[in-house]
Amino acid sequence: MSGIWLAVVGGLVFFLGYRYYSKFIAEKIYRLDPNYVTPAHQYKDGVDFVPTNKFVLWGHHFTSVAGAAPIVGPAIAVYWGWLPAVLWVLLGTVFAAGVHDFGTLVLSVRNKGQSIGTLASKLIGQKAKVLFLFIILLLVLMVNAVFAWVIANLFISFPASVLSVFIQIPLAIWIGYSVYKKQGNMLLPSIVALAVMYLAAIVASYVPALQIDLVRYFGGEGASTLFGLNATSMAFFVWIVVLMVYVYIASTLPVWKLLQPRDYINSHQLIVGLGLLYLGLLFTNPEITAPVTNASADTSWFPLLFITIACGAISGFHGLVSSGTSSKQLNKETDARFVGYLGSVGEGALALVAIIAVVTFFPTAGEFSATYSGFTAASGAGLGVFIQGAGQLASGLGIPASVAATIVSVIVVSFAATTLDSSVRLMRYIIAELGTEYKLTPLTKTHVATTVAVVSSAALTLIPQGPKGFGSGGYLLWPLFGTSNQLLAGISLLLVSIWLKRQGRNYLPTIIPMVFLMFMTLWAMIDQVVTEWAPWNEGSDWMLFTFGAIILVFTFWILITAFSAIAGNRDDSIEKSA
After folding, report:
1. Given a cut of 80, is residue 197 above it in pLDDT?
2. What is the tally of structural domains in the chain?
């Protein structure tokens, strides 16, 4: 079967979902009001609350939620066969992710741009808010640690991409200044910036002197450096320090100075990247060599598939971005459909092409099976196989393989970096909320909260763990990421459902995906906590067991409180719709 057919079917499903289903949700369920004064105007401060053109905001929103996750998850999940992965990406995007991202954005806009964690207090009570914030804080910490780990390793593996990524920073600042201080247009400068980035990537692919290869600078593979670290570990350490300094600055700057223009550039990267890959697919017409379903898999795809592919189908982290940053920049309430729902469609398109790139990369089914010999092997191979597979598709357009791989890595790193500093900004908000809750005044200060966020993220990333050694600590809590992320999505959908019910509206479009997601996720998490991490099992892990058990207890507590709230009366503290 040709990979083109997957792209055609997927594109048609996404088009119909946005054209018809999102319109139904916007008009009949969320009832968007073009005259509603959004928080961006009501609380305009030039830092976080900034009215923003919907195309620019879509770029920020999409690149903040995308990162590497809609690539990594699908690239691993094809282990169970391409059909389950494709179905979950398509149906999850249309009926779950779009409704979730769109809904959390509207709910926040209708309530002063407050985060989903704060709104939990209004909807289901103060205790639930604190429990919810704990789950959110843990999730965001894992996102920070793992995405920093991914970026540092990609810089080490693809040193030709470093120059291009760092060139983007001054270009974005220049664009931000030009647009917001001189009232210029962002489109043309961002296209010029993207051209400069890709030119730098192409030149660096052929000129070793322009490749920032820290491993080589520290003496090459196997060389010993400071504190007994080898060159690779030292390079990793330096990159983590550089990244943390960058995200500290980026997450405290006003959004118009760096975050918005950089994300707008990255939205063009999405268009260029997807264009290259889908055109490459058209010209190369590769055959799918991966199995439709993998009958010999060592783990069942049911329910693990639904937590392996989070971003690209539905992800709780998206609700944090929708209610944490995007809601504070929405110019008109009617823009929420374009930003929230279409943002999830963009991520679904990225997840779909990631699947196609992987399942068409291998010449034979045997080579696919050899690489994806087990779930653990698939987890380790996923991202690398995608970059090679994507490079293979792009090379069908006549682009040299080395250049194609560099450009793909630039795109992945750019998205991951966007998610990283948006996530640190969100973590700062959460720490400040907890500081207010417990009257810890220093934590409410921007730079104190950001310092706590950055230092804790760096510490988790750098902790040595297991056979991987130094720098593998980013994965300490990673097994909890998928389940925690989906639990967060389920709880967020539940909050939106409660809000809709109190408005006297049809809440079936939000409650149905919530029930499905919570059932699958709780099933998977209970199975992991009880049969894998518990101290009575071989290969137990006390830390994962403890955190997993706490999250499970908190989740059931929140659910019980929430369902009690559904049966209760209207809450006048929640904004009423026009």
Report:
1. yes
2. 1
